[in-house]
Every structure is written in structure tokens, then in C-alpha cells.
Write the C-alpha cells for this entry.
Amino acid sequence: MNKKDLRLIDDELQKYFGDIHENAVKVYETFETYRDLMGNLREAYQSSIASRANEIMRVFTALTTIFMPLTFITGIYGMNFDYIPGMHESFGSVILLVIMAAIGFGMFYFFRKKDWL
């Protein structure tokens, strides 16, 4: 059954309904275009947010990597043992702090050179 078989609408009015149908199809296609455009914009926005989150996680990972060996050294020298190297030296703690600072700044320089910080 096609639309010519429907005799509920007068022949004079059918051309107007044809125009209405064409306009409705144009509006529908416009809505579909805008829907696709909004979907693309949403995907681009989510991609930019994910990229920013990746940058933040990279910085946090680099900072954690810098402090990990320093925490390990502090944990070893914080134990109650008598035979830890440099423990009974007069400048043992100063030497240890200098070594820890050198490790920290060295790793910071490395990550800065790699453009991770």
C-alpha cells in the first residue's frame, strides 16, 4: 500500500502534506547531523580529559619514583641495628643526607630531562 492508496486526504491537500513531509525529513536529517556532531564533540572532550589525566598520572609516577629509594634508605637506617655502615661515624647522618639529596636531585634532573616533570 502506498500513499496514493489512502483516499482520506483530498488531492488538493496532498501536495501540502508532501511539502510537510519533505520539511519533516529535512528537520529529521538536521537533528541526526547535530546528534552525530554532539557525539563527536563528546568523544573529543572525553579524549582531552583522558589525556590530561594521563599527564597528571605521569607526574605522580615520576614523583613516586623519586621518593621510593629515599624512603627505602630511610627505612633501612631507621632500624635499630648496631652494624649499619656509617651509623657510628661522627658525620654519618650528614653523609647519608647528602647521598639521599644527590639521589633525589639526580632522579629529578633525569625526569626533567626526559620532560616527565
Remarks:
- The chain has two helices and no strands.
- Helices lie at 11-77, 92-113.
